[in-house]
Amino acid sequence: MSSQTRTIIERLTSVDIPQLKGVHATYLVDVADSGTWNLRVDDGHVEIAEATTEADCTIRANDRDMALLLAGNQNLLTAAMQGRVGVEGSLVLAQRFAGLLGSSAIGIAEPNRGQP
Q: What is the pLDDT of residue 101?
């Protein structure tokens, strides 16, 4: 089975997200059994690379939940409170980033909501 998260991220090696203007941070996106990516945000410009590095904010989830988060179809806080997503580091950065890769920001289609 292919990873929904990997499919989303591989389309986004470098992108500008106006909603992240003013943000200078690093994120680590860790997806169980799918991969780990480092997202470096510099004043709204996001560079994405497959890597395991230190980050200001780490977000961990399974493939389905992470794909829903990245597409803006799942609220990060709700998923974290339900135990489906783990967040380490800056919660402010996590909340600011959540959903901004969704369809309204850069045209990502909604991921499959079916069971994995």
A: 59
